[in-house]
Amino acid sequence: MVLRFRDVACIALALLTVSAAPTQASIPDFGPDFVPSHEPNMNGDYVLSSTPGGTPGLMPKQYREYPGGAEHYDVYSPPISTLYSQVWWKPLAPAPFPDAMVKKYANKSVAIVGWEIDQVRRTPEGDVSVPISASYNHHYTSAIIGAASRFRQISFDGPDDPRLVRMSKRSGHGRISWDQPHYAIEKLRDTINPSSTVSSSANGGEYRKSFHGFAPGYALVIDSPTAIQITPMQIDTWNRDAMNISGPMPPTFVPGPLPRASQAPVQDPLY
Questions:
Q1: 200 within 8 A of 232, measured Cβ to Cβ
Q2: What percent of the chain lies above the pLDDT cut of 90?
Q3: Cα–Cα distances in Å, from 143 out to 50, 59, 135, 176, 231?
Q4: Rounded to an integer, what is the distance from CA 172 to the centroid of its chain?
Q5: For residue range 65-92, what is the model confidence (pLDDT) as tens digits?
Q6: In whole angstroms, what is the distance from residue 26 CA to residue 38 CA?
Q7: What are the tens digits of pLDDT across the range 208-253?
């Protein structure tokens, strides 16, 4: 599985980028190379709640509706492979952004207004989403770097390693397993805009339909973006004998082997 960012099978993360200003009247001319995407959201519309006393309907439900338009780029993580009951919670190797994105924003800054994520199996017929009942995403963290930064794989000396303390403060999750390698961000030179950023999403099973976007006029700004590194926590709950994840979705969840002392319900479990 892989993660597809637009954070089992593979998950991919698609970053939606825009250089728009907060209001239609102040949107600058992005030039002839800016081609707004007309593609729908990766995971459909998002259900958004209005602030009490606020005006509903001001937040775009589709990234293509952002003022000034938005581009999008898809990024696939390295594969994630697990067996039933196993938990994957370790950093994946960095994944480069598409060449078109890297070249377009070289020596420039990109404004990331949001992202979407799916977990998929890559097949000859195309991507096939992996249901959350087969591979449960507990949370994920991610880091993005530009050309003025780099990822470096490091191993900690123990729980008191000062590098671990510094990385824990930036992780967004608060905990880092010190007994496995991680990817530190090293700054190579100064830039006007940030050359790296870190984000964390703890949506769990709701991550596909949780809105990961900013209000028009706000964004994550990265100078000369080059790569993303994702650390997901996936729990393999796929009963291979009783759940067909290649047929109609979603398949009925059927628990697999359980410990004798487990009190989890076997029939019609809610979670």
A1: no
A2: 38
A3: 30, 26, 22, 14, 9
A4: 14
A5: 888 888 889 999 999 999 999 999 999 9
A6: 22
A7: 888 888 888 888 899 999 999 999 999 999 999 999 998 888 888 8
State the pLDDT at residue 122. Answer: 92
- Separation between Cα atoms, residue 233 and residue 202, nearest integer Å: 10
Note the pTM of the prediction, 2 decimals: 0.85
Q: How many residues does the structure list for the chain?
A: 271
How many other C-beta atoms lie within 10 A of the C-beta of residue 92? Answer: 22
Strand 2-5 with 10-17, pairing = parallel
pLDDT > 60? residue 25: no
The three-state secondary structure class of 163 is helix
Owner of token pair 């190579």:
188
Q: What are phi and psi of 148, to 5 degrees?
A: -90, 10
DSSP at 171: H
Mean pLDDT of 162-168: 82
Taking the C-alpha atoms of residue 6 and residue 71, their distance in angstroms, rounded to an integer, is 10
**Cβ 155 vs Cβ 187: under 8 Å:** no
Torsion of CA 73, 119, 153, 115, to 10 degrees: 40
Tell me the pLDDT of the chain averaged across its residues: 83
Backbone angles phi and psi of 131, in degrees to 5: -65, 150
Question: Please, are residues 131 and 250 in contact by the beta-carbon 8 Å criterion?
Answer: yes
